[in-house]
Every structure is written in structure tokens, then in C-alpha cells.
Amino acid sequence: MLDGILGDYFNLPSIFIVFGGVLASTIVSYPLDSLKNLGKLMGNAFKVKKVDFHADIENIVTIANVARREGILALEESVNEMNDPFMQKGIMLIIDGSDPELVKSVLETELVFVRERHSSGQAILLQMSSFSPAYGMIGTLVGLINMLRSLDDPSTLGPSMAVALVTTFYGVVLANLLFTPLAKKLAAQSADECLRKEMVLEGILSIQDGENPRIIREKLNAFLPHSQTGTASRAAEQQGSGGRSPGLSEE
Asked: For 131-171, what is each residue's pLDDT tens digit?
């Protein structure tokens, strides 16, 4: 019985109209260079990406301790071991003795282009979301036209009406269950990543200014939600009292 019910929602012409139409309009609307990573982009939206702000804060505070105790040039030994290219670039700039305004300008420029790349992918998905209901309506018109042309043959009324209704169903489902949610999820992931980069930028500038690591920690904690700030402070206190080696103690 279930197979029969699901089979009622499967219509090959409707699938062709909606999927084919959305794909064709998207290809016409955007250059191929913008579309070649669309599959990867949609795959990223299904992945669970959690930005660990606490780990980044601890990493920055550790770097600040080394810089305060041994000098900025002492960071050169560990910079190649960093997994974050954004942080690595910032630390390299301050090691090279770049002006703070230059460091800020370079990293902010990269941050702007990261936002732009992310927003372009989201825009494509949102555009596909707007195409889907439109092609659903086109399928409805096709089905109604076929139905009206064949009123003298009752056997064709059912298939024609199926195309008319199921195509609209496909368009609405694609827009509201796939494309729009994926775009919103990518936007949320982008916001978290950009906030993290802003926090790293603030930490790098504070390290270059020679600020106290405790002050840097408190400054970076401001980027955390209020509910997590207390947790981060308690974790730092526990690490400082028992879990940290003497060589990494905050000065």
C-alpha cells in the first residue's frame, strides 16, 4: 500500500520539468566557474561543523604567553605547526615586523573576500529556490494544456492532471525542503567562521601590542555567548591551577 501511495507522487515528466528547468536556468544565470563547486558547497551544508572558540582562545593565549616571555620572534618556530592559515598569516605578519594597521588591513581584506565567497554560494542556492516554484507552475500549465486538449479522451485526464499537480508539488518541496534550508545553513556556518576569524584578528593585534595574556583572554571571551563565558573562565582557572605546565603559565 505504501509503495502505491509513494508511486502516486512519482511522475517522470514532472521531474524533468522541475529539475531540468532549475538546472538549465541556473547554468544560464551564472558562469560555469561559479557553479563547478556547487556540489561540494551543498555537501558542506550537510556536514556538522562546530567552531571551537574555546580552543582558539586557549591557543591565542598560549601564543601570547610565548610572545610576552620570549619575544615575537620566538613564535617563528611554532608558526609552521599551526593548522589555521588565517592565524598563521597573521602571526607571520607580526613576526616580520609589519605595522599594526597593515596587519589589520591584510586580515580584514581576507575576511571580506571570505564573506563574499560564502555569500555567492548562498545566492546561487537562494536563486535555485526561487526557480523551483516557477518551474512547478510551468509544469502545472503544461499539464492543464494537455488536459484541455484531450477532454474528448477521458483516459488522458488523469495523467495530465498528475503532471499539473505533482510538478507544483516538486517545485514547492525543492524550494522549501532543500534549497532554502541549505542556503540558511550555509549562512549560519559562514557567520560562525567569520566571527571566529574576527576573534583571531583581535587576538593577533593584541599579541602585537604586547597586552597581558589575561587581558587578551577576557577580551576574546567577549566573542562568546554570555552562557559560555562563565564556562570558559572556569576552564581557564582549572587549567591554570592544575592542568598547565609551568612553561605555559600566564604572566
From this structure: 999 999 998 888 888 778 777 777 777 777 777 788 899 99
Closest by CA to 202, choosing from 189, 191, 217, 187, is: 217
Q: How far is residue 226's CA from residue 71's CA, in Å, rounded to a whole number?
A: 33
Instruction: Please tell me the pTM assigned to this model.
Output: 0.77
Number of residues that this document lists for the chain: 251
Distance CA 62, CA 60 (A): 5
Asked if 213 contacts 63 with a C-beta cutoff of 8 angstroms, the reply is no
Q: Is 70 exposed, middle or buried (0-12, 13-18, 19+ CB in 10 A)?
A: exposed
